[in-house]
């Protein structure tokens, strides 16, 4: 920050000792140290805020660049799709009727839709089964077991692995 060497600091200390005297010099040194710490803290605060702003600007710039790249890619994809569509429509109608690509593409789309619907139905059924199992599960009575014949609670013997009488 400042280009102050040891000799300059020594000269400042001698002048301060002569001007302030030995009684007031420690208090003045503490006061100067306080102001130097405050100035450094303020400087670091401003510097870190400036760096954060630069990072934010860099992030915004990279996001805008990525958005522009995606728009360009989408536009190129749309243009190539439109070109393919025009080429397909400009084909000879007799050749187009004999070309199985169109019917095959329709079959693939239909199969994909059916698979997606079937997967969704399986997930819904699994969720419903889990909900039914949770609702049907009996609430435990703090470690006590029920006697299978009478329905009364069996006494807790403390040994889970011991044979029942």
Task: Describe the overall structure.
This protein is mainly alpha-helical. It has a domain of 35 residues. Helix content is 76%, strand content 0%. It has three helices and no strands. The longest helix has 84 residues. It starts with 5 loop residues before the first helix and ends in a 29-residue tail after the last helix. 0% of the residues are buried. About 7% of the residues have low confidence.
Summarize the structure in short.
The chain has 165 residues and is an all-alpha fold. It is 76% helix and 0% strand.
Topology:
Blueprint: H1 6-89, H2 93-98, H3 101-136
Descriptive keywords:
165 residues, 0% strand
Q: Work out the helix count.
A: 3
Q: Please state the structural category.
A: mainly alpha
Shape: elongated
Unreliable spans are: 139-149
Biggest sheet statistics: none
Range of helix content: over 70%
Helix and strand succession? HHH
Q: Report the end-to-end length measured between terminal Cα atoms.
A: 88 Å
> What is the mean predicted local confidence, pLDDT?
76
Give the quaternary arrangement of the chains: single chain
**How many distinct beta strands?**
0
Could you tell me the radius of gyration in angstroms? Answer: 41 Å
Strand residue percentage: under 5%
